[in-house]
Structure formats: C-alpha cells, structure tokens
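Sample pair:
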Amino acid sequence: MIITERLTIKSMSDSDKNSLIEILRNNKVNATYLTPDITSDEAANKLFDRIKEVSYIPDRFARGIFFDGKLIGIINDTGIENSNVEIGYAVHPDYHNKGYGTEALKAVIEKLFEQGYAAVSAGIFEDNIASRRVLEKCGFILIDKTEDIEYNGKMHHCIYFEVKR
C-alpha cells in the first residue's frame, strides 16, 4: 500500500468492481487507456477479476488509486523487461485536473524504484496532451520510440516516455 497526501494506492477488492468497470467503460477513459472490449458484463467481470488478481502478485504492479476510500483510477504495469517496467494509468474524468494522476504516478514511480526497477516507461497516444503533462510533471522524458496502434477501429500514433532512477 502506498499512501500520499491525498491518496491511497493499493490492491483492489471485490467491492471495487463496479467503480473500476465504470472507469474503464467511461468514454473519455476508453478513448485513451487501452482496454479490451468490455461491452458485455461477462467480459467486464473477467477483466476486473484479472486486474484484482494481478494486484496481489508481488512481481507485478496493478493498483487502484483511492481518494476518500473511493476508487478513482488505476495504475498498472503493461510490460516488464529486465529492469524496465512500462506502466499505464487512468483516472476517472470526474477527478481530472486536480493533480491526482500526478500525485499517484510520482508515488508509484518511487515505489517501483524501491523495488529495483531502473527505469519506468509509459506510452501515450500522441494527441493525449493531458497525459503528456502528467508524465512530464513526474520527470519523464520523451524517448526515441513510437508505435502505431489500431484501437477502437482507429489508428493511433503512440509516443513513449521514460524516467530513470
């Protein structure tokens, strides 16, 4: 568990299911946070169960971001290679522009470095200016890695950022 000035970042429990599904189904979140198709309740429940399970695996990172006891977002690893971990994050739009994403990400980076990772990277859609600002506030720098991804029937140009210990 990670505790910041305003947030708690921790594993999820069954009581967080509806909040996480609401976050991941939100149109604004779904436009920028890569999720599998969770239009059916069965798919949404399976995804939640998998994220919850991963949130308890010591060598993986998937945690909920909680404000006043309510799940408002998620930060998770999307890949681990040697001493580099790639992460993704999403915060419910009702909690945007309040610094919660930046606060959570800074704390998670510190924790990942404590766990022995030498670098943390993140990929974002190039037009996601808000996420870019969050990364830059957390010390990430643009690296020479790009990728084109088809997501939700549309091509997106992804750019990558990294912060090193």
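The beta strands are 2-3, 7-10, 62-67, 70-81, 84-91, 119-125, 141-151, 154-164.
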